[in-house]
Amino acid sequence: MTTVDRTALDLLAGLFAGEGAAEYFGEEVTQAEHMLQTAALAEAAGAEPALVAASLLHDVGHFGALTAAQGGRDGDVLMAGTDNRHSHTGADWLAQWFGPGVTEPVRLHVAAKRYLCAVEAGYFGRLSAASVHTLRVQGGPMTPAQAAEFEADPYAHDAVRLRRWDERAKNPELPVPPFDHYRTLLAGLLDGPSALGRSASA
């Protein structure tokens, strides 16, 4: 593992241990517990490494540390009623090190919730109260035209799989592996030398 790889993984680990230890907005788990549970569910389902990584990192866009101009935790803005577009913030930030197999399911995981609420009977009824609140802020269920556009995206299927694990990953009693369990998997997905210049400014 190169110095660049270690720096990137240490930065991610620091986010999980720092801001990740805070409550996950309106849920009974912390942000880190939620993301670790999502990754554990993906791994248990036999998902490919990139999708496991996307599941692990899907909510990093909630961390205020990713946006220097953001006052307080970025997710607080969402809960207060303004769409923080954390899916896009997270995906764009992760693109410093990871390819689209990781970043695009992250980018689409909010859209996947809106999609499932539009096309799958009963899905809305399984959302937590906090997820129902954020759905309204994020635009509500998709229109038929929006759903068709979503389905045409090459990463839509992965985003839907991630979303299903996401909704289940809110169990305060579920034991899961720590962040370090995923270091080797993440290291294998890093872009390598192409990330050298970018990681220094992260």
Automatic annotation (TrEMBL):
Residues 32-101 form the HD domain. This is Phosphonate degradation HD-domain oxygenase. The lineage of its organism: Bacteria, Bacillati, Actinomycetota, Actinomycetes, Kitasatosporales. NCBIfam families: Phn-HD. InterPro entries: HD_domain (IPR006674), OP_Dioxygenase (IPR052567), Phosphonate_degrad-assoc (IPR017670). It holds the Pfam family HD.
